[in-house]
What we know:
By secondary structure, the chain is mainly alpha-helical. About 85% of the residues lie in helices and about 0% in strands.
Amino acid sequence: MKIEEAVTAATAESGALLSCLGQPVVAYHVTAIMREPDKSHARQMQLALMQRSIEALVDDGLDDSEAEHCVSQFSGRLGSAWDLLHMSDTAH
């Protein structure tokens, strides 16, 4: 898996978040997380992005539970994509 594929996999079905924060903003942060080789640091970056994402979605009109649900799904895809990307790095 390449970084571009990982970003696409992580952002799939995240329409509300992409429209709220903007495609370039989300892509920038997700790409930075994908490039981070240290899993612990990548996870810290991911958690910070998730918190900002919830806040932005709530500011955009979603209630807390809807925002948390949306971001939870996004976070799961992001973590899985990071794992797949870096698993293929170490397999070579």
